[in-house]
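We emphasize that the prediction below concerns an isolated chain of 75 residues; any contacts that depend on oligomerization or on bound cofactors are therefore not represented. The input was used exactly as deposited, without trimming of termini.
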Amino acid sequence: MTEEVKRLFRSREDRMVAGVCGGLAEYTNLDSTVVRLLFVAVAILGAAPGLVLAYLAMMIIVPEETMIEVSSESD
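Result of the prediction step, given as a token string:
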């Protein structure tokens, strides 16, 4: 039985700033708008300094997803 490991990446296509929310949304199978709204809601509720530090840490630590090139061979 083969099990595929889920990995967290910053999104290249679904990004507003650095792709952190887009990557989290893809990892958790949520809509990226929901993740962004949660970030804003938590920031407004008073956890802004910690949230900003977490976001900056994820920008640095979490790798960006790689682009997979598909070559089409024509005969």
